[in-house]
Amino acid sequence: MNAPNSLRQQPDERGHFGDFGGRYVAETLMPLILDLEREYRAAKTDPAFAAQFDDLLEHYVGRPSPLYYAERLTEALRESAEPGMGAEVWFKRDELNHTGAHKINNCVGQILLAMRMGKTRIIAETGAGQHGVATATVCARFGLPCTIFMGATDAARQQPNVFRMKLLGAEVRPVTSGSATLKDAMNEALRDWVANVHDTFYIIG
């Protein structure tokens, strides 16, 4: 009998989610990926890691995010539905998290993993800037230098988030190659990571 299809059970050692998935990365990145995977698996079963992560989510991020019952929207949907039918709508208020989005959850976990691995420099890519802001925020919290790669086109469109990242101490590197958007920022971040893997952790958004 197959195990339940749960992220707690997967991916397996080949990077597969049941019949699907796998690893599709350049060979030069495989040693980095395998090292990261080993440390992640160890951290996942470490009670001290889990306790620190949970504490930061509660006291730094502000989780659990509150749920809000959208009474008027629910009423409107039920008025237009068959009797006894219609959705009951609840909002999960992730915008009340620190930095104003869900992105901070991922960044907190990843920077804890980075420090566990002994990394002393953080890089990330960002498009609209929210992931960049969250990454810069956790770097400021833990005192690690942070470089954010952002397409020059995106940086011009998202000046408030560029300002926030710089305010938090991050270096924002505009990427002018290609379409100067997220794809190109990610390519530059990957190039940096491969060249500086000895001390650098890539917080992928």
TrEMBL record:
Keyword Lyase: yes
Gene Ontology CC terms: cytoplasm
Keyword terms: Amino-acid biosynthesis, Aromatic amino acid biosynthesis, Lyase, Pyridoxal phosphate, Tryptophan biosynthesis
InterPro entries in the cross-refs: Trp_synth_b_CS, Trp_synth_beta/beta-like, TrpB-like_PALP, TrpB-like_PALP_sf
EC number of this enzyme: 4.2.1.20
Cofactors that this protein relies on: pyridoxal 5'-phosphate
Claim: Ribonucleoprotein is one of the keywords in the record: no
Molecular function GO terms recorded: tryptophan synthase activity
Tryptophan synthase beta chain-like PALP domain sequence ranges: 63-192
Pathway: Amino-acid biosynthesis; L-tryptophan biosynthesis; L-tryptophan from chorismate: step 5/5
EC class name: lyase
Top-rank lineage group of the source organism: Bacteria
Pfam assignment, any one: PALP
Swiss-Prot/TrEMBL catalytic activity: (1S,2R)-1-C-(indol-3-yl)glycerol 3-phosphate + L-serine = D-glyceraldehyde 3-phosphate + L-tryptophan + H2O
Oligomer status and interactors: Tetramer of two alpha and two beta chains.
Family designation: Belongs to the TrpB family.
Protein's name according to its UniProt entry: tryptophan synthase
Protein's organism: Sphingomonas bacterium
